[in-house]
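Input record (one chain):
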Amino acid sequence: MELEEDKIVKTSEIKVKVGLNANNLPIAMKWSADDGGISEAPAKAFLLSLWDPKDNNTMKIDLWVKDMSVEEMKQFFHQTLLTMADTFEKATGEHNITEDLRDYCYHFADKMNILPEE
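The corresponding structure, as predicted from the sequence alone:
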């Protein structure tokens, strides 16, 4: 028997528009999420990972615009890794391993020279 909470009651859409140059390199990105009140907000990079339950595999798209600096990419990855630790802990309750991942994030930030100055 299907529970009431398991029924889809609405759908939501997130859109990413990617502007390409003549060589098909991303040069501009904008994203929208009507439910979040976001419309055509600029972005320089995005990472999308989707779990394919049929193949038990991750499908992914990684894009960044041509003018994204290396320093911005370092910050983007550091913040993404920290977010992944938070999400994994919330989804699994695995506190010990997420603390290890956060320790790695500190190490990453240290090696990339992106730690805030004290």
